[in-house]
Amino acid sequence: MKILLTGASGYIGNRLLPHLLEAGHHVTVLVRQSKKLTIPDTFKNHVTILEGDLLDDSSLPTLKDLDAAYYLVHSMADDPKHFYALEEKSCTHFLRLVEKTGIKQIIYLSGLHHGSDLSEHFRSRLHVEELLKKSKINTTIVRASIIIGADSASFKILRDLVEKLPFMIAPRWLNTRCQPIAISDVIYYLIHLLNLPQAFNRTFEIGGPDIVTFKEMLLIYAKLKGLRRWILTVPVLTPHLSSLWLYLVTKVNFSLASSLVESLKVESIVKDPAIQLLLPHVCLTYKEAIQQATQNAKN
Q1: Residue 84 included in any domain
Q2: Which one of 16, 253, 257, 258 has the fewest beta carbons within 10 angstroms of its own beta carbon?
Q3: In a domain, 217, yes or no
Q4: Of all helices (H) and strands (E), which one includes residue 177?
């Protein structure tokens, strides 16, 4: 198949690309700067690298003859006051780019959320979902809970907080529940939903087998590392102070920290098991995901 991969230099796209190539697909990658992308010599004949910025319509190339596209572009690291508009602009330009290529499927990785009191981050992703669904192209939406992998923002935050702070006075959103999922399981679903007619024009929720709070995630990580940690959650830390706390203790930038804090207030629990009915798959437990991420971080 001929596949367009956006966000190829990002955390998810960079891990998805080799799996697509190993499956024998020809992949066109769209990146802002091609020098940030490394392609093994074995696969160079199966990759077309194009430079372009989805926020700048005039920078985008003309594409022809595509079978499918992965839309993995997010603006979480940009100014949180504007990324709703940036996400809309990026998605609109993406649709213009692919709508005349004969494309049969778009796969979009979104965030798992429920309820109406959504953060700006989740609202923007929901808006992108709606834009994609309004197009005439078959769309598969994958809503993922917190993704655990060696270079994921979530894992880096967990690691930095636990390894740097023996005692934490933490915001109450640490009591929010989620269903963390290993990066390897996310990649499994993204690969197996490709060119699957039963997945066209559907939304799927994915998460690992464990439902835990962020506080429990920290304590489980500490136990696996052989560290004793104490966490006291308090209601007085504002979103700004919470963001500053993450920014000062971890390696994430302040804009990303702000986006994450707003998102972590919302439970991300799988309520629709449709993905397991379509693609039965045993996901790694949270402990196994942490162990996998820790091992990969060493390599």
Answers
A1: yes
A2: 253
A3: no
A4: strand 177-178
